[in-house]
Write a structure and sequence with these properties.
Strand order of the largest sheet: 1-2-3-5-4
Strand content: 5-15%
Helix content: 40-55%
Largest sheet: 5 strands, mixed, barrel
Distance between the termini: 64 Å
Amino acid sequence: MKTKDKFISVIGREQSRLVLWTPVAIGFGVIFYFLLDTEPPFWVGLSALAAMVYGFWWSRRRNTGVLPVLFLMAVLIFLGFTAAQWRTFTVAAPVLQRTMGPTSLEGRIVHIESRKKGLRITLASPRIAGLGPEFTPEKVRIGLAGRQPELHNGDWIRVRARLTPPPPPSAPGAYDFQRRSFFKAIGAVGFSYGKARVTSSADQVVSLSPVQNILTSLSRIRRSIGLRVLDAFPETGDFATATLTRALMTGERGAVPDGVMDDFRDSGIAHLLAISGLHIGLVAGIVFVGLRSLLALLPSIALRYPIKKWAALVALLCAFGYAMIAGATVPTMRAFLMIGIVLVAVVFDRRGLSLRLIAFAACVILLIKPESLLGASFQLSFAAVTALVAVYEALSQRKRGKFRSGRGWVVTVLLYIGGVALTTMIAGMATAPYAAFHFNRFSDYGLAANLFAVPLTGLWIMPWAVVAFALMPFGLEALALVPMGAGVEMLIAIAAKVAAWPGAVTLLPAMKTGGLAAITIGGLWLLLWRTNWRWFGLGGIMVGMASLFWVQAPDILVDGKGKLLALKNAQGRLVVSSLKTSKFTRDVWLRRAAQDMPTAWTDLQGLACDSLGCIYRIKGRRVALVQDVGAVMEDCQNADIVISSVPIRQSCRMPKVVIDRFDLWRKGTHALWFGEDGSVRIESVNDSRGKRPWVLRPKRRPSPEKDAGT
């Protein structure tokens, strides 16, 4: 009884924090939906939601203690589930089922991205020669190489292209580009042959809806700003500086040189290139403070009108415009929602509650785009901002009023540097598990780099960016872009210097999803509560971090086309069959195994190869890696496991495991783990993803010989 009373007492003291768990409950529903192995009937989510709403109403009428709270949690969970199910239903569109091309492709440009080698464009309402309208994707994304005509958003173009379905993950548990493409309605990807031809310019298209017109106009404005930024720098100038300046102003990072991006990642300041809370907050803050200060210089206005509210409204409009120009990504919209509510609160003489703002922003994003919960952008953004707000909220309650008066500039500078250091430490600790999960790396000197990079960005680069935006209507943006570019050059130098330090990056193996879930739940428990029971969250964090020590790279990996294989050597490192084939897939495998440099499997112990294939002996097993049909009969008789890059159309009864070209074609990349007891665990890409709308499963081709043999 005492335990129950104590529990009720704790809940009573934490009552004001319960609302912060609203997005967590919605997120549970979203995760539950995406973890299902098969797509549920559409009525399941709506029926369960209606039942829980009725249960909540019934329990509230009878005041049955904790029961209304439980029903409310169930309502939120099934709200998230239904939102995810509805989102899947509304975005579903045809997806290309086979490789096509070269073929004629025509469509309307809705997005243009500058890349290192040409452009990458997204076409809406495509027309593909040889493909009926009922099988044509809603959108197609292709790369345009070489010299191209001047293209604008809204233009209709025709080009010859090679198209393929969106590729599946490169390994079980790896990044799922097919799922991301599904929710963006991109049903085919590819590249062009030769120049594109504009068949109808954007000015001639009159059949667009108002929403399409707005989106097209925003894309054109974004591209126009990007081109004017590049034009502001001399042709002989530093291309990296120009592209980074454009990235900070428009969010377009595709053309930033690989070496520069690597330096930013390795030094731990890549977050400065992702327009999010820091940038939106700086733009809003600079406009708010600058305009309010300017109006304060005019006594006739300052003494008669609410200049603080005027400044807040203008700052709100500028923040919204910046968010739209930057592409309205998840971090950008999260930041705008929070900053927007704070500025609206200023207008109505209210005070914003920071953690509640985060909860509100998370709920809005989860209900509009539930799939964003699975992405690195959402996870990193909300992990960092939740940790920062929670910690600073706790510190402000303990040190309220301290250092408020009588401090000199030295103390102010030291406090600012200390604030940057503390902010970097908190954000780094909060985002490290998600960086390990998605990118398999940790920047060891991120604190040192951010101590210089963050003040440079906040005090020099972004103020000049705001001035550049203000001068663009008059064609005078170069006056601000030149000093901004000087700051960007310093930023590049900081990144290169820190990235060159020994041991700048620690590579980490791919964390299991369960480990990340334990860290997330533990972190939320620690940050959202205020009484002492919040420390139980440390247990979940430690369990999740400990899961890194239990991760084992596969003993064998074979890609979905049978062209690339990887084996684990005696030192526990993956070695690959080729250094030239399927480089993207190879790099994904190595990154998930916490390796940086590829190594060929020459002189691998236990491996013997000839022109027909290889025999690999591992933990008492004989594995045949077949490359030619001439080796099938012998290997089927002598090997324990056969992995064949060619179809096996005959009886192969002897091995316990047979993976042939058909299996690879249908299920994608296969990973195999061998136990000391002789057991074999096999995972494939498509088996791990289930039968969901975004999972492409090639139809089985008839093979009567194989079917008859098995």
